[in-house]
Design goal:
There is one protein chain. This protein has 1158 residues and is α+β, with helices and mostly antiparallel strands. It has a domain of 72 residues. It is built from 44 helices and 27 strands. The strands form five sheets. Strands 3-8-9-11-10-6-7-5-4 form a nine-stranded mixed beta sheet. Strands 12-13-14-15-17-16-18 form a seven-stranded mixed beta sheet, sandwiched between helices. Strands 22-21-20-19-25-26-27 form a seven-stranded mixed beta sheet, with helices on both faces. Helix 5 packs antiparallel against helix 6, helix 22 packs antiparallel against helix 23 and helix 35 crosses helix 37. The radius of gyration is 34 Å and the shape is globular. This is NAD-specific glutamate dehydrogenase. InterPro entries: Aminoacid_DH-like_N_sf (IPR046346), Glu/Leu/Phe/Val/Trp_DH_C (IPR006096), NAD(P)-bd_dom_sf (IPR036291), NAD-GDH_2nd (IPR056365), NAD-GDH_euk (IPR016210), NAD-GDH_N (IPR055480). NAD(+)-dependent glutamate dehydrogenase which degrades glutamate to ammonia and alpha-ketoglutarate.
């Protein structure tokens, strides 16, 4: 019980309210003027007895409470800057600093100082910080919106009355009352009446009256009024609404507004929304009121400014400028400015002086938070809060600002679920960021009904995605079958592959997994507590003004079950084994998450760093070093790497239709793993291991690649960078326990986003921002692969190597290529080639000419980087043709009938058209696999295509490659052929690490006037030569090993990769690095000559991290040894190799012959 000893004989009404709050279970920790303030969690201890004091009024009590709870401006702003605000806000209370320092003494003893080194972020994500010690108070209690007075309102009312009289639907005696009620009692402002016609207003009143009449026919006499009217440029919705209640089976007007108007608002066509609640209830026995929504298409002063423009006279809607007060404009201007400067939502809260109303303002980029408007209602309803008014304003620079006028549903009815708004507003603010990440999750109904909290539903949503990808569906039976069949038998392998694919696709679908989880909210709650107990930061530094959240309080009150108890709880709750398998997978998720941004105050998507040890070795034989999963409102994405220091591209996968999306979801992780594994093998010549990132756009978000990429990158950075801004980027629980750096590069659909990622990493304070992404534009020191043909150079060396070994004249070779002149690989392959092209397949269709495609026309397309759809068909021979994907029912010159252009394009590479060389430079992974490779083998068991060089990653599955080689094809796989791009990227990074900032800008960055530094030009040429040399070394090694052993070249490629990477790792563990002469000589040979001449070896060694130099040392020695002596060479061979090497160093001081593979 709550005990309060006061001098006055009876407590005041305000004190009685507080007694009710404590009796409901709300905690108390701070004693202030004789009253305990709600600032600390309930620790299952008896409440302390306050000292005797005079009674105080509620306003003073709330003021003291707000002193400790309400947010402040960003710590980056000074008090002087606060005082300069033009918005009529009160200055910080004078005694605030003293209170801020003293209130920590009241925190539970478990909250001790852990970190005193955090500083404000140079780019905070929002202005207010929950738990801060400064208050932002609006002294103007009006809404801040004042519609210009409509002088013709009275005359219009008379006209409306006349129109309704003529209709005859409302009895004459009621018409005046109904019109007067509509005009004066609903709170509709004059802008509506000025904008709408007399007929439209009369129809709205008739519709509302009809709802009243309909209530008489109901048994419960319940009045439900619903009106929706939609025009081309505006809409009106009016609904019966009980404050604080979300209705699942109602008209869902807010979801409709989201879907029809807000989700896809953009500067070219944006909509603003005004919504408010009537002041009166609909009846004496009803709590329901009318909720009105008005949607208007925006009319901007400047419809197409820069996205960084912040001049309100240019970017604001004309109606907004006309209706809002100057103070409101200033307030919105601050929010818009912050959105322009930062990534993610800007969240701000204001008190309204003299009231308990809170104004929550959220700013964000348009189209970045689908469904947020309606989801916000569910959020504040969950905490017993309702809104009096809501506004959504759009700006032509691409910013959306949502303003919510929040108030408690009831003044006195406090419960643990519905705390006073002074406490709950901070939890709402924290959860806005979580809601922004995923506004509509798979378990939203549980949240609306109150069965699960927002955190629990979004946690369940994330785990359901994890389960979709990682639930082991093959089972013991598949393992047994694998042991019985011969994996070297192509027929057996084909059967196993089909069974594996079928089991993965059909055993546990995403819908089935969601259905199971939805049936057990009580298990979700228990499993979430296990997750939260591990990752919610429960102690803060004593210099941090941490205020325990409702989440923290709950975590301290509810028991967290031990793992074994959780398993027993699951198995005694579920109905069958399938349900147990799904629910127990939650623990797999919980046990392997090493760190997450789930509890970071501001975020744009949810990221999880996993220990990948749970992956079954049978399916993923090469163990991963690191694994990230990122989930946003438009996408899901992985990042996988095989070594701590690793490099690989980030690709965005789009889906042409729903079926393609379903296939992409099922294959996403395997594709990512295989791509990273391929990268690991092709990175054999460079210090970085292999990695890859794959971002899959949701089916309804195919046009949001940029937003998805930015959220993906920012959320990964959350887990790589230390926290620097309390209340914005707080510490996270890091079970990995050591710093991590990821090196990334461009891939499919991300080439134009690399500059943003580089500059964003710099803005977020990443010390390694220059090397974070390769492939950036030359102005940032990047070396574009496509412009200089870096990847194509290595592919071309393998093609030329075949011709050289077999003494073939390239001009007589008939060639087919997938990946057209619009792509990096495809365009450069065309520009470098002199074979006779007879077929090219790209995203637009198929181009064929048995007599040879016009070379000059292909070069024109390649230089312009356009698809074959722009090929001049007048330059085709009579036997030539072009079939585009959107064409159908076509008859080819040879008489063949093509019913569907897309199907023809997707399968054309399997046709026998009489080609000698095939270079896949684009296309989906495993376009050739065991199920269709037979089409490339003739009746005599011979490959229809003699020479294949795989430029595109994973275009041919490994087992299909081996089958083609057994059928006589000379085939070089992707990991060997297309490694030129990664070599260029690695040397780009080396330059960024070697130069200081000033020298880097001088020597590696293209100037604004387009001037290219001489060093840059020469360095690019040396990089190209290194790429070609490395490709020749590997080609010769594979050719020689095949001649010696007869082993398939695809397997030899893997053998080389494994031998080099394994030897590299072993060398880095030896003492060879300590041999200074050897170290300097190897580095001198491994590093680009131009860089060494420019800076000197000592300077490079002094600037480049030692771990990176060791990786260069090891990879160079290992690759040169394996290329020279073969992948299965003995330790004795390495001893001989090193002996010769040391002798050359002692005699000549160089190892130049080693660099050339001699």
């Amino acid at each position: 019980m709550f005990h309060c000893h006061l001098k006055h004989p009876a407590p005041s009404a305000e004190e009685r309210d507080y007694v009710e709050l404590r009796a409901a279970g709300w905690p108390a920790a701070v004693q202030k003027d004789g009253l305990e303030l709600v600032t600390a969690p309930l620790l299952n201890t008896a409440p302390s007895r306050p000292s005797e004091s005079h009674s105080h009024h509620l306003n003073e009590f709330l003021n003291n409470l707000l002193t400790l709870l309400l947010p402040c401006r960003s710590r980056g702003r000074s008090v002087e800057e606060e005082e300069e605000d033009e918005v009529p806000l009160e200055k910080p209370v004078a005694d605030m600093p003293a209170m801020a320092s003293s209130h920590r003494n009241f925190l539970p003893p478990t909250l001790t100082s852990q970190d005193e080194s955090r500083h404000p972020s140079p780019s905070p994500f929002h202005l207010s910080i929950p738990g801060g010690t400064q208050r932002r108070i609006i002294t103007d209690t009006s809404s801040g919106y004042v519609a210009p007075k409509f002088e013709g309102k009275e005359k219009q009312m008379e006209a409306v009355i006349g129109t309704i009289e003529q209709s005859g639907f409302i009895p004459a005696g009621f018409i005046d009352d109904e019109v007067e009620w509509f005009y004066t009692r609903l709170g509709i402002d004059d802008m509506y009446f000025k904008s709408e016609s007399v007929e439209t207003i009369a129809n709205h009143i008739l519709a509302l009256y009809a709802g009243k009449v309909a209530a008489f026919s109901r048994a419960d006499k319940k009045l439900e009024i619903r009106l929706d009217r939609e025009a081309v440029d505006h809409a009106v919705y009016i609904d019966t609404s009980t404050p604080g209640v979300s209705v699942l089976n109602g008209p869902q007007y807010e979801q409709r507004i989201d879907e029809k108007y807000l989700n896809d608002s953009h500067p070219g066509k944006a909509y603003r929304v005004e919504t408010f609640r009537s002041n009166e209830s609909l009846g004496a026995d009803s709590a329901a009121q009318l909720r009105c929504y008005f949607v208007y298409q925006c009319q901007f002063e400047d419809p197409s400014p820069s996205e960084n423009e912040t001049d309100f006279t240019k970017i604001a809607d004309k109606t907004f400028l006309e209706k809002t007060s100057e103070n409101t404009k200033k307030l919105y201007a601050d929010i818009v400015q912050a959105v322009v400067e930062r990534t993610g939502p800007v969240i701000e809260m204001f008190e309204v002086q003299g009231t308990r109303e809170k104004r929550l303002i959220i700013g964000y980029r348009q189209r970045s938070a689908k469904g947020l408007f309606s989801a916000m209602s569910d959020l504040y309803h969950y905490y017993g809060v309702t809104s009096a008014r809501k506004y959504v304003e759009q700006f032509s620079n691409g910013v959306t600002v949502m303003s919510l006028y929040l108030r408690p549903i009831s003044v006195n009815a406090y419960t643990q679920k519905h705390p006073p708004i002074e406490a709950s507003i901070h939890q709402i603010m924290k959860e806005v960021s979580l809601l922004y990440c995923i506004p509509q999750n798979s378990f939203q109904k549980h949240f609306i009904r109150g069965d699960l909290s927002l955190q629990e539903t979004i946690y369940a949503h994330c785990v359901s995605i994890f389960i979709t990808h990682f639930l082991n569906r093959l089972g013991a039976e598949y393992t047994s079958l694998l042991g019985l069949l011969d994996t070297n038998n192509n027929a057996h392998t084909e059967v196993l592959t089909k069974i594996k694919r079928r089991l993965r696709q059909e055993t546990f679908t995403a819908e089935y997994i969601t259905e199971i989880i939805a049936g057990y909210p009580q298990l979700v709650r228990a499993l979430y507590l296990q997750f939260a107990n591990a990752h919610y930061v429960q102690t803060r530094g004593e210099n941090d003004d941490f205020i325990p959240t409702l989440s923290y309080q709950r975590l301290r009150q509810d028991p967290v079950l031990k793992p074994d108890d959780l398993v027993n709880h699951i198995r005694t709750t579920v109905a069958n084994d399938h349900q147990a398998t799904v629910m127990e997978s939650f623990q797999l998720f919980n046990n392997h998450v090493l760190k997450t941004n789930f509890y970071t105050p501001t975020k744009v998507a949810l990221s999880f760093r996993f220990n990948p040890a749970f992956l079954p070795p049978l399916e993923y034989p090469q163990p991963l070093y690191g694994m990230f999963l990122v989930i946003g409102s438009e996408f899901r994405g992985f990042h996988l790497r095989f070594r701590d220091i690793a490099r690989g591209g980030i690709r965005i996968v789009k889906s042409r239709n729903h079926e393609a999306y379903s296939i992409n979801v099922r294959s996403m992780f395997d594709e990512n793993y295989n791509l990273a594994n391929t990268q690991q093998r092709k990175n054999k010549d460079i210090p970085e291991g292999g990695s890859k990132g794959v971002v899959l756009l949701d089916y309804n978000s195919q046009d949001k690649a940029t937003q998805a990429f930015q959220k993906y990158i920012d959320s990964v950075l959350d887990l790589l960078l230390p926290p620097t801004s309390p209340g914005i980027k707080d510490p996270i629980v890091d079970l990995h326990g050591k710093p991590e750096i990821l090196f990334m590069g461009p891939d499919e659909n991300t080439a134009n986003l690399v500059d943003w990622a580089t500059e964003h990493a710099r803005i977020r304070g990443a010390p390694w921002w220059k090397s974070f992404f390769t492939g950036k534009s030359p102005r940032l020191g990047g070396i574009p692969h496509d412009e200089y043909g870096m990847t194509s150079l290595s592919v071309r060396e393998f093609v030329l190597g075949i011709y050289r070994k077999l003494k073939i004249d390239p001009s007589q070779v008939r060639k087919m290529q997938t990946g057209g002149p619009d792509g990096d690989l495809g365009s450069n392959e065309i520009l470098l080639s002199n074979e006779k092209y007879v077929a090219i397949v790209d995203g637009s269709g198929v181009l064929v000419d048995p007599n040879g495609l016009d070379q000059q026309e292909l070069i024109r397309l390649a230089k312009n980087r356009v698809m074959i759809s722009e090929f001049d068909t007048s330059k085709l021979s009579k036997q030539g043709y072009r079939v585009l994907v959107d064409e159908s029912k076509i008859k080819l010159p040879n008489g063949e009938y093509v019913p569907n252009g897309t199907i023809f394009r997707n399968t054309f590479h399997l046709k026998d058209i009489g080609v000698d060389t095939f270079t896949p430079c684009g296309g989906r992974p495993e376009a050739i696999e065991m199920g269709n490779v037979g089409k490339l083998i003739d009746e005599d068991g011979k490959s229809r295509i003699p020479y294949i060089v795989e430029g595109a990653n994973l275009f041919i599955s490994q087992d299909a490659k081996i089958r083609l080689e057994k059928a006589g094809a000379i085939l070089f796989k992707d990991a060997s052929a297309n490694k030129g791009g990664v070599t260029s990227s690695s040397l780009e990074v080396l330059a960024s690490l070697s130069f200081d900032d000033a020298s880097f800008i001088e020597n590696m960055c293209i100037k604004e006037d387009g001037t290219t530094p001489d060093f840059y030009r020469q360095y690019v040429k040396e990089v190209q030569n290194i790429i070609k040399n490395n490709a020749r070394l590997e080609f010769e090694a594979i050719w020689a090993e095949h001649e010696r052993t007869g082993r398939p070249r695809s397997l030899i490629s893997d053998d080389l990769s494994y031998a080099i990477t394994n030897l590299d790792e072993e060398l880095q563990k030896t003492t060879l690095w300590n041999d200074v002469a050897l170290r300097r000589t190897v580095l001198g040979a491994a590093l680009p000559n131009l860089l060494v001449k420019k800076l000197g070896l000592d300077t490079i060694v002094g600037r480049v991290p030692e771990g990176y130099l060791k990786a260069i040392f090891g990879s160079y020695l290992a690759s040169r040894f394996v290329y020279k002596c073969g992948p299965s060479s003995s330790p004795l061979a390495f001893y001989s190799f090193m002996t010769t090497l040391t002798k050359n160093i002692n005699e000549n001081g160089t190892i130049n012959s080693l660099a050339n593979g001699a």
